[in-house]
């Protein structure tokens, strides 16, 4: 029988990979199209295991992302907390949606996450890129969602993460 601690390592490993993918250097033209890996992984785990991954996990994940990106501490944390709260409130319905419906909702959730980050950067006076950057990232995130969802679900089932 698998211990509960081993399941935590699977979750942490997926977040670690998401962090690596979030900081991989890309050409300047492709930066706007980079999928939002950490929010996507967070959405999956909140949806799959809402009793284990929730608002506290989102706060910690956001602080780590702030540290990695060198952004204002708490910027991504606040946005990911909002994302986790919304996902927690609809996780039962989200599980019942088809892949296409989930992708449509991912555009909205990731877009909201990016808009919160964008708005907070404006409020604190940081220079920000064009306001259309989040649309491309939200669309690419939604495009990869079905594959990411299946991959993470298979990983969760094969390691029996509960």
Question: Can you offer a commentary on this structure?
Answer:
This protein is 74% helix and 0% strand. The protein has 162 residues and is mainly alpha-helical. The chain has one domain (4-158). Helix 3 (55-69) crosses helix 4.
In percent, how much strand structure appears in the residues? under 5%
Secondary-structure content class: mainly alpha
Q: Please provide the count of β strands.
A: 0
Number of domains: 1
Question: What is the averaged pLDDT score?
Answer: 92
Task: Give the overall form.
Answer: globular
Helical stretch tally? 6
* Biggest sheet details: none
Instruction: Name the helicity range.
Output: over 70%
Distance between the termini: 12 Å
Unreliable parts: none
How would you summarize what this structure contains?
The protein is mainly α and 162 residues long.
Fold topology:
Elements: H1 4-23, H2 37-48, H3 55-69, H4 75-96, H5 99-123, H6 133-158
Helix pairs in contact: 1-2, 2-4, 2-6, 3-4, 4-5, 5-6
Output the keywords.
single chain; 74% helix; 6 helices
């Amino acid at each position: 029988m698998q211990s509960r601690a081993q399941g935590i390592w699977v979750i942490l490993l997926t977040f670690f990979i998401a962090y690596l993918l979030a900081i991989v250097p890309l050409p300047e033209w492709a930066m706007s199209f980079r999928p939002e890996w950490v929010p996507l992984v967070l959405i999956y785990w909140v949806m799959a295991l809402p009793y284990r991954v929730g608002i506290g996990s989102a706060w910690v994940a956001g602080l780590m992302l702030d540290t990695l990106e060198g952004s204002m501490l708490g910027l991504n944390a606040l946005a990911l907390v909002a994302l986790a709260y919304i996902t927690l409130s609809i996780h039962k319905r989200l599980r019942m949606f088809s892949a296409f419906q989930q992708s449509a909702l991912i555009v909205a959730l990731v877009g909201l996450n990016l808009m919160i980050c964008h708005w907070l950067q404006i409020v604190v006076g940081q220079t920000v890129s064009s306001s259309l950057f989040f649309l491309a990232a939200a669309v690419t995130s939604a495009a990869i969602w079905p594959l990411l969802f299946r991959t993470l679900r298979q990983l969760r089932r094969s390691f029996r993460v509960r």
